Amino acid sequence: MKIDVIISADDIKENKIKDKIVVVIDMLRATSVITTALNNGASRVIPFLTVEEAFSKAKELKDNYLLGGERKAVLIDGFNLSNSPLEYSKDVVNGKDIILSTTNGTRAINNCLKAKRIFIGAMINAKALTDKLAEINEDVVFVNAGTVGQFSMDDFICAGFMISKLNELNNHELSDIATTARYIYENNPNVIEYIKLARHYSVLKNLGLEADLEYCCKKDIIDLVPEFVNGEIKLI
Q: Where in the sequence is the domain holding 206, given as residue range(s)?
């Protein structure tokens, strides 16, 4: 298995992902939200690039849906839920469709349509996901959503955590950037302490979202793998 990393949504190029297995990571917070919502009984998550597309889908569905997401880490006017995974509890999302639009995560997902398969990854479901990747045993690209097109330490160390897990199972062929991501995680296993240096961490902390930060840095607390297929994300 060859393993590579793309450092932001702006760096997604067709030749890097075409016909490959892709794992999209936006641990702070979109992919943590998606994983949590599905774990708590949401029927599916439908990711959109724009707020306008999200509202249009809501009109189409008419009922049994929730609008979730953010712009600049803040709840979108007219949406039911923000981008906090803690809001997506079982009593709120069970049996509902989640229409999601975020600044970075849903953009990264929709930019990966040329991939063979698209999985959704975060710290919270890393073991389940890496077990699935090991079972498939094909080349994989970890796509970091990043922050407004820029590299983000949080997504990078999350990719490193998964790469480290894969290498525990077998020795794989890592690109230089994949090797660096693994090195970063293995030398900084206390993830929340490491990402305190990240710009996006500071943004969320200044908004009083410390509980979100702590939750998103938990390791392997959800045993499921979401997959994006035909415009929607469900459990495989």
A: 2-229
d(CA 95, CA 147): 31
**Facing residues of 99 across strands?**
46, 67
Q: 100: domain CATH number?
A: 3.90.1560.10
Structural domain includes residue 161: yes
Number of domains in the chain: 1
**Sign (positive or negative) of CA dihedral 102, 108, 113, 119:** negative
Collapse the DSSP code of 47 into the 3-class scheme (helix H, G, I; strand E, B; otherwise coil) and give the result. Answer: strand
CA distance linking residue 68 with residue 82, whole number of Å: 5
One digit per residue, the tens of pLDDT, for the chain of length 236 reads: 999 999 999 999 999 999 999 999 999 999 999 999 999 999 999 999 999 999 999 999 989 999 999 999 999 999 999 999 999 999 999 999 999 999 999 999 999 999 999 999 999 999 999 999 999 999 999 999 999 999 999 999 999 999 999 998 888 999 999 999 999 999 999 999 999 999 899 999 999 999 999 999 999 999 999 999 999 999 98
Helix axis angle for 176-186 and 153-169, nearest 10°, is 90
Residue 236 within a domain: no
Tell me, yes or no, whether 104 lies in a domain: yes
Cβ-proximal residues to 77 (8 Å cutoff; 6+ apart), any chain: none
- The string of DSSP codes covering 71-118 is ETTEEPTT-SB-S-GGG--HHHHTT-EEEEE-SSHHHHHHTTTTBSEE
pTM for the structure as a whole: 0.97
Give 74's DSSP letter: E
Tell me whether residue 38 is in a domain.
yes
